[in-house]
Amino acid sequence: MAIDVNKKLCGGDGFMALHWRNRSGESCGRGKECLDIMKVVEVNRTAKVVANDIRNYMMKHDISCLYVAMPPFARVMLTILKNANVSQVKTFDDISTSEYPEIVKIKDDGFLVSLLEQEICARSKVFLATTYSSWSRIPSISRSLLGNKTLTLTKFASWISPLVSLK
What we know:
alpha/beta; Rossmann fold; five-stranded parallel beta sheet; globular
């Protein structure tokens, strides 16, 4: 399935993949009341900087497409990326269509979707990982075995709010 995605996503061109997960905002995502709204505000401020950094990196390295792997509660990042004029922002929603019939069959299985997205990130031209995430670690290991570099958010971002953990 990941091979099929690589052939079709972004017209078959190499793409950047981002694993966006942020512990600072998770308390708001699973049906719970936000415990610290200031952290959420700072996550969004940091996300705007990261989005601009991604856009600039993509322009500098002639990459025209970004695949974002993220949990459902982090979807505000898509709006932030689009507002920063990051070109061709793609997500699982874009690959769970009739164009990818095998993926449609697994779209309700969170475990298989997660494995697929890890493989997509492993096969991307550039992977921007959440620094200490075990999820990001799996594609990072695959990439390192192939000699492909993985960038981490804590080193990539030009500014991170002191209230935010991008780990």
